[in-house]
Amino acid sequence: MSDAVLVKTTFDGRKVEVIGRHVCLDGKPETDELVVIDEHPNRQAILQAVPRASHMAGRLPLTLAEASVAQAALRRANDPYDGTPRAAAERLRRAVWQKSFADSAE
Q1: CA Rg value for the chain
Q2: Residue 91 lies in a domain
Q3: Is 25 helix (H, G, I), strand (E, B) or coil?
Q4: Is 18 helix (H, G, I), strand (E, B) or coil?
Q5: Is 59 part of any domain?
Q6: How many distinct structural domains can be found in the chain?
Q7: For residue 9, what are the domain limits?
Q8: Has residue 64 been placed in a domain?
Q9: What is the DSSP secondary structure assignment for residue 13, as one 8-state letter?
């Protein structure tokens, strides 16, 4: 497991960190990817509540600076290429899931 990278601290004192390949809230995985606010289905409500939000990490709004820290840490965690058959199968499984999710969302 890699070191935690602090993204921000919430108003109630919980840490938002990137731990390994996940953005975590208070040490619990929240998501493994960031969504640009313009692509989020609830962007209007989010921007009303958090006007400076530029990205969402699961249910966590992030400013551009926070998203930059989180994205860099996620990229570092995902950069090492694992060429084993098991890792290749996992990458394929994720790609198929994302494609089927995108196709059903339309």
Answers
A1: 15
A2: no
A3: strand
A4: strand
A5: yes
A6: 1
A7: 5-81
A8: yes
A9: S
